[in-house]
Amino acid sequence: MRRVWVIVTMFIFILSGCGLFGGEKATKEIDPPKDVTYVEDEKGLQEQETAEKEKATETVQRELYLIDKNGFVVPQTFALPKTNAAAKQVLEYLVENGPISQLLPNGFRAVLPADTQVLSVNLKQDGTLVIDFSKEFANYRPEDEKRILQAITWTVTQFDNVKRVKIRMNGHDQNVMPVNGTPISEELSRDDGINIETNGVVDITNTHPVIVYFLAQEGEQTYYVPVTRRVPNSEQDELAAVVKELIKGPSYGSGLLSDFQADAKLLEAPKYENGKVTLNFNEAIYGSVEKNVVSTHVLNCLVLSLTEQPGVESVAITVNGKAELVDESGKPLSEPVTRPQNVNTGSF
């Protein structure tokens, strides 16, 4: 009897080893191998890393004001990495030998001295951006002093909530620039102008500024340059004064260009309504191109210059009161033209 019991016991043991009585062990044996779970985890990790990289390389268009070969402060638009510290970022891209180095177009240079650090930026409730630079900020060429002020101001005021600028160096307010002593306005803003021309202005107190855009060229690249002109206070129509300055053209020897014909003129005062300006020209606005065709550069200079005026959002053009015009690509100019979001992007 004992021998039979031993045999039965061994038989049960063998069966349990085969999993017929060990459900838990059998389940474990048919579970997927560990490397399958590892591959799934690795795939998830790779997807997460890819998403993080895509987020890190997300870009946004920003205007940086640089110095061109003629010494003008000019906006150039670049795709910069998206960041929550945009004002600090654009200032860092103005530093010579900094991150702008690989992006600089031919004929352009950065405006801030090499090794300059942006120690902090602080936006006050009144729209004043307080910028604190390191001591290297003072290591610039004297002739660049006003250009630096303009480039800083126009670069950071591209942000709607920045209205004016205050400059510090190592925590100390700067009332004058450190090299040539150019006064820094308490209300430093775009109202102080850019690429200011005063040639031929006898009595500056009886004038006021307007901004007009002319052309410049570097190799095959054409770009637009903002210039501040002084016009007499007797000019009652600001919009007409802007057009007049555009037709007058850039100053001799400036290196700037214009597509306007000297005999182009407005046949009547500009009409303004709900943000739109309508200009009625004589046929000289066509210039040397085919009839009914308005030069792209003429159109762009008009739009850029007039939309610098408060309240102006778009420009419509007629000739002898008729709107049967096309641009150089053959596109009808039946609708008013609005200002581009960014200037000198390569497409405008």
From TrEMBL:
<dbReference type="InterPro" id="IPR019606">
    <property type="entry name" value="GerMN"/>
</dbReference>
<feature type="compositionally biased region" description="Polar residues">
    <location>
        <begin position="339"/>
        <end position="348"/>
    </location>
</feature>
<feature type="domain" description="GerMN">
    <location>
        <begin position="87"/>
        <end position="178"/>
    </location>
</feature>
<feature type="domain" description="GerMN">
    <location>
        <begin position="239"/>
        <end position="328"/>
    </location>
</feature>
<protein>
    <submittedName>
        <fullName>Germination (Cortex hydrolysis) and sporulation protein GerM</fullName>
    </submittedName>
</protein>
<dbReference type="Pfam" id="PF10646">
    <property type="entry name" value="Germane"/>
</dbReference>
<feature type="region of interest" description="Disordered">
    <location>
        <begin position="328"/>
        <end position="348"/>
    </location>
</feature>
